[in-house]
Input
Amino acid sequence: MKPLAAWLLWLMLLALPAAAADCRSETYHNNAYVICEVDLRTERLELFLADDIGTVYGHFGTLDAALKEQGLSLGFATNAGMYHEDRRPVGHYVENRIELQRVIPNAGPGNFGLLPNGVLCLRDGRADVIETLKFIEQAPACRSATQSGPMLVIDGALHPRFLPDSTSRYIRNGVGTTQDGKRAVFVISDNVVTFHEFGLLFRDHLKLPNALYFDGNISRMRAPDLGRSGTGFTTLGPIIGVVKPAE
Output
């Protein structure tokens, strides 16, 4: 993050009421999850990939240390979408209005090709999960955005290719947003789950109209209030997290 960008972000953070992502552990249909809710009216969500010289942050601790050099700190965080071996995002990626990857309207590698997929769009004071073709049609002015897939919930309906009797089980993480865009809800499973089970959590338990899958086995979540650091050996690609002034 450039010093000027960090300074402007710090000023915006000072204008927000003091708040932190609400993280909790829950069980739904015999599966364990960590759920973190972010209120976009009081918290600042940001996407991060690499520093000014192109070195990928890759770990929550590395990103937090870089933010602290700018007088900021990282609160809740999770990985935010699929990436190539060199950690470049597979799909559309915008960070602080700089586009690093265009929107991919067709099928891509792995689960990204389980169409329809979607985009998480961050704007000041709101966040929205939008199905990719609708995103292209609407062309919202996102401050930051990350494309991933598949969609978990699309306008209140489960992804049409999710099977109740699927045997494909992995640790999974994703995000859903409310209709008004004021709340983003991030979830990681603490045990292996199917896409169908994961989608039901967002649709039936969290009551979110749209939700997007981020990734599988490599998924991690930082939730300081739960004593969860999210450390791991795998280097992550895009990271999304709540940024606040350093204490």
